[in-house]
Specification:
Rossmann fold; 3 domains; about 600 residues
Length: about 600
């Protein structure tokens, strides 16, 4: 057997550089890196040596580098991914939040934090977290609950098994998610004689698991027995590439559909059977559909509480649940009749079993009325005062083209965009599985890197911008252009509204209600400009529309700041959400909130 002598770090990056997709691309496109004493000498040297065969990109924060990598993988529909490396200690634990985000959203990212010395000679090393009861534990064990696969590399030859396992998880459509390979810093630099065959290129194909024929037959029978079936289209439809298949399915069988946050934009809003989104931030026509459906067919969705209105939106007494999903864990939730299989293949088989069966029970006028409502609440204001978030969305919508991707993650805008944004096919990107504040700017960069031909428009509130904005500088340095719409309502307006809806007093959300000596006047334009972005503030909706159009000609990020009011919310649609209200104490307002909460609980149907 021929061997080649390499350090463990050199072997890792060489192996990653030859893991290919069936399109001839590297599956791991490159590596985001912030170096420290836990990875600079080993992984840093190896990445420098391999050069453009596995490119390295410098970011500003480990969490947001990982967010960019996750957004890239989501945009690529999980068919390509990126890696992120950090030092030990805070550099590593900064990535735990991003790992949780990827885990919840079932998205692949390879996390390679440095770790303590395997030989333990210099213990405790700088930034080492010592467990008094377990000598094998390090800070990196915090990744275990939030990754799909965890391994600690304590010997150079461990790469021979852990690297293939890592890629098998990241390319498995049912088990896909983040992987953490905690790489002991002394082991990174240790040499080993690796088999040359280990570095031969390998192609990783995303399989399409076929559904069980009996499960398909049971679902076909359930649909034929239904009078009012509806479909909930989730992110699994996009990852399967089943958008056209679903569009043909609903057309052939006359079944209306709605979209989750992850599934929105799979099929254009213009499709006559697309009734928008259901649940807490759903459209009126979608929620009316859900209330009357006697068979709810989930395709590639995990039935998150926003989708189900905390299990109150499906109101028909006789309703049943079907779940088509690659993951058996998701397919069997809430007593659903499961079909475990790829969305595209499964829909094709179910359609064949249905033959020419049609239903056509939905009300087209409800959809038309809803679109008119959206136009009304998103129209430019005809009065003095600050615009609402809905009116900002309207301005962007009027300027959007078929190539525009609207993206967001947390605060008011995700719910407002789900209910109001009219997405063309491929024109929507929302991180709402984890709803992670700070994802927005890094995520926008990741989307643009994945689809440079698209116009990426990032919606971010002042609160989320303050949490994580530093990758704006990275985007400037790399000339990655996108447009940031920064809505400033001077606090956490979304949670302030929720606080009041739950009977609480306005407290610690808006700056005016916080324990501060000076009310801040943050100059977001100056801040963004200091990082090299093109930044300006607009005073009106009309000015906002003009600045969006002007941003298209730039090769760096553009940040457009607009002051908004924090009271209105979306202005349309919506449904009840289970947020527990205190059972004792408080004011008359709290008692009214408890009564509303008790009424919502009474409508929940969780296990039937």
């Amino acid at each position: 057997m021929k061997t080649i002598r390499l350090t463990a770090a050199q072997a890792m990056v060489r192996w990653l550089s030859v893991q290919m997709t069936d399109d001839g691309d590297r599956f791991i496109e490159g590596v985001w890196a912030i170096f420290g004493h836990g990875n600079v000498a080993g992984i840093g040297e190896a990445l420098h040596g391999i050069g453009e065969a596995l490119p390295t990109w410098r970011g500003q924060n480990e969490q947001t580098m990982a967010h960019a990598a996750i957004a890239y993988a989501k945009t690529k529909k999980r068919r390509r991914a990126q890696a992120v490396t950090s030092s030990i200690g805070p550099g590593a634990t900064n990535m735990v939040t991003a790992a949780a985000l990827a885990h919840v959203n079932r998205l692949p990212v390879l996390l390679i934090p440095g770790d303590v010395f395997a030989n333990r000679r210099p213990d405790p090393v700088l930034q080492q977290v010592e467990n008094f009861d377990d000598g094998t534990v390090s800070a990196n064990d915090a990744f275990r609950p939030v990754v799909r696969y965890f391994d600690r590399i304590t010997r150079p030859e461990h790469l021979l098994t852990c690297l293939p396992r890592a890629l098998s998880v990241m390319t498995d459509p049912a088990n896909c998610g983040p992987v953490c390979l905690a790489f002991c810093q002394d082991v990174q630099a240790e040499a080993h004689d690796y088999p040359e065959s280990f570095f031969e290129p390998r192609v990783w194909r995303i399989r399409r698991p076929e559904p069980d024929s009996q499960e398909v037959a049971e679902v076909v029978a359930a649909i034929k027995a239904a009078e009012r079936p509806m479909i909930i289209s989730g992110g699994g439809v996009l990852y399967s590439g089943a958008e056209a298949t679903l569009a043909e399915f609903v057309k052939k069988h006359g079944i209306p559909f709605v979209e989750t946050q992850a599934g929105k934009g799979g099929i254009s809003f213009e499709d006559e059977r697309n009734f928008g989104s259901p649940g807490v931030t759903g459209s009126a026509c979608a929620n009316d559909l859900a209330a009357r459906a006697d068979l709810v067919i989930g395709v590639g969705t995990r039935f998150q509480d926003f989708t189900t209105g905390s299990w109150t939106v499906f109101g028909a007494e006789d309703r049943k649940l079907v779940s088509i999903n690659l993951a058996g864990y998701d397919a069997t939730k809430h007593g659903a009749l499961p079909v475990v299989g790829d969305a595209k293949v499964t829909l094709e088989k179910i359609s064949a079993g249905l033959g020419e069966a049609r239903f056509d029970w939905h009300d087209p006028q409800a959809r038309t009325d809803w679109h008119e409502t959206v136009r009304t609440v998103t129209a430019a204001p005809n009065h003095a005062g600050l615009p609402s978030d809905a009116q900002v969305i309207g301005a962007v919508q009027r300027q959007a083209g078929p190539n525009t991707v609207a993206m967001c993650a947390a605060g008011t805008m995700p719910g407002a965009l789900q209910v109001l944004w009219q997405a063309t096919a491929g024109g929507y990107h929302m991180e709402y599985g984890y709803s992670c504040m700070g994802y927005e700017i890094a995520g926008a960069m990741g989307i643009k890197l994945a689809t440079p031909e698209k116009e990426v428009i990032c919606f971010v509130g002042d609160g989320s911008y303050m949490m994580a904005n530093s990758e704006l500088a990275t985007a400037v340095m790399r000339k990655v252009p996108f447009t940031v719409i920064l809505t400033d309502n001077r606090g956490f307006g979304c949670i302030n509204r929720l606080q009041q809806a739950c009977g609480g007093a306005e407290f610690n959300n808006m700056y005016r209600d916080s324990n501060v000596a000076i009310q801040p006047e943050i100059d977001f334009v100056a801040h963004a400009a200091s990082m090299g972005a093109h930044a300006e503030k607009v005073a009106s909706i009309a000015d906002l529309e003009a600045k969006i159009a002007a941003a298209r000609g730039r090769d760096i990020p553009s940040v457009i700041v607009i002051d908004t009011e924090a009271v209105s919310g979306t202005g349309a649609g919506g449904h009840w959400w289970d947020v527990a209200v205190p059972q004792a104490g408080g004011t008359g307002r709290l008692e009214k909130a408890r009564a509303r909460y008790a009424a919502g609980i009474a409508r929940q149907r969780v296990h039937d």
